[in-house]
Amino acid sequence: MTLSEAVATRIDELLDEKKMTQYRLAQLSGLAQTTIADIRKMRNKGTNIQNINAIAQGFGIDISEFFNSPLFKGDSITD
Question: String of b and e for 22-51 (b: at least 16 CB within 10 Å)?
Answer without folding.
Answer: eeebbebbebeeebbebbbeeebeebeeeb
